[in-house]
Structures are given as C-alpha cells and as structure tokens.
Amino acid sequence: MRINNPIKYITMKPNKLTHFIVTTVVGTGTLCCCTQPADELSLWYEQPANEWMQAIPIGNGRLGAMIYGGIEEETIALNEITLWSGQPDSTQNDLCGPENLKKIRELFFQGKIEEGNHLGTQHLSGKGKSFGTHLPLGDLKIKFEYDTETTEEYTRRLNLNESVSTVSFKKGNTRYSREYFCSHPDEVIAMRFTADQPGKITTTLSLDLLRQGTSVASKKGLVTAGIALFPNLGPGGVSFNGTFNVYPNGGEIIVSDSTLTIKGANELVILADIRTNYQTEDYPQICFENLQAAANTGYQSLKQRHIEDYKSLFDRMKISLGTPTEDIATDKRWANVKSGKEDVSLDALFYQYGRYMLISSSRPGCPLPANLQGIWNDNLACNMPWTCDYHLDINIQQNYWSANVANLPECNLPLFDYIGQLAKAGHETARKVYGCNGWVAHTVTNAWGYTAPGGGVGWGLNVTAGAWIATHLWNHYLYTKDTDYLRTTGYPLLKKTAEFFVDYMVEDPNTGYLVTGPSISPENSFRYNNGDWCMSMMPTIDRAIVYDIYQACIASAEILNVDADFKERLERDIKKLPPLMIGKSGKVQEWLMDVERSDPSHRHSSHLVALYPLGQISYTQTPELMAASRKSIESQLNAPGWEDTEWSRANMINFFARMKDGAKAYESLLGLYRVFSRENLMTVSPAGIAGAESDIFSFDANEAAVSGMSEMLLQSYDGFIEFLPAIPDSWDKGEVKGICAQGGLVIDMKWAQKRLSNAEIKATREHVFRVYLPEKWGVPVLEINGKKIDANTDKELYDITLSNGDVLSITYR
C-alpha cells in the first residue's frame, strides 16, 4: 500500500524539553489465554503490559518506543536519544588549576593523606550548573471501540528475527492485528492496525506528553504542545518537533480540540518521527520531509527495508545452548527461572535479545550513543540522583562490551563519535583543571560536553573514566583489524588520551613510579590512620587503564609506522608504572598503598578492570594475580550486606568467565534473571537502591550479560583462542555460529558433553594466531579450505596462519 497523502496528521510544534510525569495504563475486557506456540526467537505474552517494565522495546538507534499492547487503550511510550534538558556549562572547568594540583600532590607524597583529601575536596569537587538529563517524550494514546467486550486468543509478541512487534486478538468474529517497527533506513516509527472484517477500526488518538504545565490545542488535526520548564534540572534543553501522520483506509475523520478520531476504517497506518535542534536548526523541516519520504515509500516497502537492514546485522549470529524447553509465554518462563528452575532456551533468547537491544539503540549515524537506559527512558532514572546520562565508571562501558564479540562492530560507531565529542570538550578540562595537554573526562558526562569532575570527589573524581571508554577504540581494532579505522579514528583519539597522561602523571619521590592523582577507586574509600579517605595517588584502576592506553598507542604507532618519538616516550614511561600488586590479605590491592576498603560490601570492583575487560591478568601470564583476583571477588561477595545491583551481577559473569569458572558464571547469570530482571527480560536496578521506589530499567546488565556469556563460550584475549573455557553443566551441548575472536576471526562451533565436536574459524583479514585444543577432547583434525594440515604445536597450542577468506576447520573424531 502506498500512502502518498495523509488524510490527517498530529504534530507537535517546536517546543522546549521539560520534565515528565509517569502514567500507566491497564487493558480492560475479558481475556482468554492463547496456546499459540512461539519460535525460539520471540518474546511473547498472553496479556497486555500493565506497566512500562512489561512493555516491549523497539528502536532504530535514535528513536525508541515501548509497546504496551493494550486492547481498549494502547500506549506507545516514545523516546528520542537527543531529548535532553540542560545546556553547555562554561563554568564547569573553574576548578583546581596546576598550582593547587601541585600542593595537593605534595601533601600525598609527604604521607599527609588527611590533609591531601581535605585540600583535594576543596579544589576538585565539580560545580556543574546545567548538567540536565535525558528525558522521555511522552505517550501516544490510542483508544479503540469494539462491538463486544470479550477478548479471545490474545498474543503480544516481539519477533527478534525481524525486529517487529505484533499484537493479535479476537473480538467476536473479528480478528484484530497490529504491527510496530522502528526503521533505521527510513528513520520512522511505523504502526499498522488491521481487522479481518471491513470497517472495524474505530480509534481516537491523543498525546500525553507527561509534563508539567503543558497545553494542548487542536485545529484541523494539528496538535501543539505548550512550553514548560523544569528549573530543578537547570536552564536549557533542546527544542523538538514530533509528528504523527495518520493514514486510514476508509472511514470517517473527526477532529476535536485535542484528539483525532477515525471511525469505521478498514485499516490504519501511523508514521511517526521526532526531531530536535541538538544538531540542526532545520529539525521541523527534516521531520516533515522524512515523513513525506516514508509515506511515498509505502508501508510494505518500509517494512521490507527495515527487516532487510536489521537482519543484515542480527543474522550474523545464531546460538543454541542445549535441549529446548517447553514453549510457553515468556513471562511464565521468566517466573519459572525466578522460582529456581533453569531454562537453557531462555539463556539463548536472552543472549539474542541483548544483541537485538544493542542494534536497536546504537546504529551508525546516531547523534549520541546508548545512555544508561539505552534509548528507552522510563521517566524514573531521570528523576534519580544519577540521572539518565553517561556514567563512565563502568556503565556505558558495559553497554558496549558485547559489540565486537557478538558480531556487531558497527554498533560501536556512535560511541566512537561521542568519544570524539568528549575529546574536544575534555581538552579544555585538561588544560584548565590540570594544566595538561590531551583530553580528560571523569565519572559523569552528558550531551553538552561535561567532562569536569562530578560534584562529590568520592564518586566524581575518576580521572581515568574517559580513558577507560577510550580503551574500546583499541578493542575494536583488535577484533576487526581494520587499519583504515585505526588510522583515521582509533589512533588519533587514543593518542590524545595518552597525551593527557604524559603531562598529568608525576614521579612519586618515594618510589620512583609514575603515578596519577589525586584520584579515586570508584566509589570506594579506604581505612588509613583511623580515618576513611577516598583520594590517593595512583589507585589500581588508573594504573590498569593508563597501561592499556599506552600499550595501544605503542602498538598503533608501530602498525601505522607513525610518531616514532611519541612511541619511544611511551615505551620509556610505561616501564615506570607501578605493577599490579597483591596485598598482605592475598587480594589485589585496590590502591598503591596496601590498605583495606572502608566498606567491603560496596558494589564497585574497579581495581579488577585488569582482569576484565582489559585482560592484563590471566592464568598463563599472571597466575598469582589471577588467584588474588579470585580472593578479591570472593571477599566482596561474602561481605555482610554485599551491595548487589544489576550491573555488578553482570560484571561477575564476566569475572568468573575469565577465571574459567563456568558454574559460578552461570550462577551469576541466573541471579541476574532472578533478582535483576523483569517480565520483558529488561534488567533493572531494583526498588530500594539509591531511594528508588520501584524497579528502574538499566541497559548495562542486558549487554554485559551478553559479553559474559560470550566469554563463557570463547576467549581470545590471552594470546590464543580457547573454546568453551567456562562452560556450565547446563550448557552441556550446543551450537554457536558467528561469534567473533580477536584478529578479525569469525567462528562457528558445536559441542556435546561440554567437549568441542567441530569448529570453523573464518578469517576476514590475514592473521597469525594460536588455538588451544586440549588433549582431553581427543585428537583434532585440522584443515584449511578443505586441505588437511599439520600445524606446529606447543603444549596443545596450535600455530595457524590464515589469509583473508580462509577457513580453518577443526574436527574431533
């Protein structure tokens, strides 16, 4: 169907973004359960969502929506990634300065920890005035009229194969169907409502913008939203335009002051777009032209283009983790797992759901990367102390841990663009706050280039937070081996990151080490001389991250044959960094000093970034540090009152996978389901955390769980590829296609009884590598492009050279 001309449309005129109020809708009528089976790549339900955390997410990276599937009243909760309050803050860097920094450091070097913390707090506490937050747009409400109250055969579904959400049910003799998708190629949210009997679509559309002080007026289908400000979030905010074009087939149109009613239509299509002035002042015209182009394309072509675009990413991987379990509704399967059961099919679904969510929230060309909620803002996180922003002390990193290994490298691109924005803003912070070249960003950032320390030094002075997110630039190269990317994007940003630390670090007169500081180990403090202090020189997180950045720059300069002098400087300085240390307690030291945490139960494990994700600790290279890492983790988990959250539980999946403990890794995955997820399989920061009155969706654990599950199946960080390094008993047999390893390698593998049966390693670049094939699995047969080879071996490590396009086959007899 071509939809060249809308009969009527609803549009929101340009407006200033403001604060929203939560609204929930419950479907009414008599429901009869449906026994329709679902394939293994669908989330499906037998009833509408009663609240946001039961709704189904769709998105295209920029636009997002939550579909409730209500019968009498449908709710579509709407988001756009640049809908931000706040504005740039010209005073953010009016802190510290080189002379004060020198005085603070002198106190620490003299062992005056208390005085150093007092002076550091005075000069390094951020004073952001207009930080703002990401906010939801509001809800599109669609009320329906029917001939009967009884509802039968209701099914609500998200098809992960196609990224299409559907609702289907019967009212009397009429079958009603709905489709929803969010198109990346055409940049619209598309909705289609049909019935198998003519003239049965009668509906009224309205907008609930969830805001204080909003006025709504209508004239010939035009709905405008009045301006309202929320001063608690500071001045500023984007201007925006949202348009909802309505295309009924048949029926009558009735326009009231604030609604648009379609009576007796055979079919209804709605196309929606939302634009802001975040990047352009022409956003109203862009919105209008984009919707006109989508209408000219036609609904079926829009859907086909959307599916083809989505499948070009999603279909790269397939995963099965054992014998499929009983095919029942997703919320029932979720409830069964929460009650103590296991469901390996749900494990595989959860993995692919995480990939779906990353595709839906981070696509090339998006103006901002996924934030703390991806792109699905529940109107709760933005009202919490942490706001809905970009936390760089682990959370945004977790959002993107899975991108490369789960064969979605393009999803990194919005993050890399954002790192480029931070580098520009962070250059001024580096210069004014520290007197250094390069760039720096701390714990919290926003859409407006905030890179100064946060308001409390205990959480806000993570001086390597920006560098940590920059390590993703090198990781992307390790997986893709894309030299053009490294030359144009990766290395220039990595070099600027390193330039800051070349200027910033100083030699400790007591040890001769090059150290950062004053800095923190987020968000922990330590006991020293009967006091609790957070700031010190060179906490372990800083050492691990600086080491990774320097190593990346040294390797990049060699690969690209550039910057010989800079490379030589880094090679000299990296030798002066302190080593990772084991304290008298047998744990990895969290600080350069051998001190203990003030709160052993705190959720952060920042000193173990060397274990994961940075891979500086391994059984083959540093077995003592691996043992100390395990003791650190066990001490934290066993501490009374262990402060567990969704992201810390997902973090544990990755930690235990690196420690090759499949049982503990799987236990953490099950714990994530049972404690920190909801019926729609979205992970949550639970009620009670930081004063939250209800569950709040947090994107980080959905994605970090995918990376952790990948690490359980395959590892390639330690100089060789290892199959099934942390396989739990529950995944005793399975198959994975399309998982990625460092070196531009794509791998298919199949196993039974926790033993590899066969594998194929496909090279996308010329690469020399090692693969670990343990003797306990038997004698492997190796072939390259169908020809048997005899590879050099060293204690079960096989040396392999592949050219671009080559395939190494491994078969166990």
UniProtKB/TrEMBL annotation:
<feature type="domain" description="Alpha fucosidase A-like C-terminal">
    <location>
        <begin position="715"/>
        <end position="792"/>
    </location>
</feature>
<dbReference type="GO" id="GO:0005975">
    <property type="term" value="P:carbohydrate metabolic process"/>
</dbReference>
<dbReference type="InterPro" id="IPR016518">
    <property type="entry name" value="Alpha-L-fucosidase"/>
</dbReference>
<dbReference type="InterPro" id="IPR027414">
    <property type="entry name" value="GH95_N_dom"/>
</dbReference>
<protein>
    <submittedName>
        <fullName>Uncharacterized protein</fullName>
    </submittedName>
</protein>
<feature type="domain" description="Glycosyl hydrolase family 95 catalytic">
    <location>
        <begin position="298"/>
        <end position="713"/>
    </location>
</feature>
<dbReference type="Pfam" id="PF14498">
    <property type="entry name" value="Glyco_hyd_65N_2"/>
</dbReference>
<dbReference type="Pfam" id="PF22124">
    <property type="entry name" value="Glyco_hydro_95_cat"/>
</dbReference>
<dbReference type="InterPro" id="IPR008928">
    <property type="entry name" value="6-hairpin_glycosidase_sf"/>
</dbReference>
<dbReference type="InterPro" id="IPR012341">
    <property type="entry name" value="6hp_glycosidase-like_sf"/>
</dbReference>
<dbReference type="InterPro" id="IPR054363">
    <property type="entry name" value="GH95_cat"/>
</dbReference>
<dbReference type="InterPro" id="IPR049053">
    <property type="entry name" value="AFCA-like_C"/>
</dbReference>
<dbReference type="Pfam" id="PF21307">
    <property type="entry name" value="Glyco_hydro_95_C"/>
</dbReference>
<feature type="domain" description="Glycosyl hydrolase family 95 N-terminal">
    <location>
        <begin position="43"/>
        <end position="280"/>
    </location>
</feature>
<dbReference type="GO" id="GO:0004560">
    <property type="term" value="F:alpha-L-fucosidase activity"/>
</dbReference>
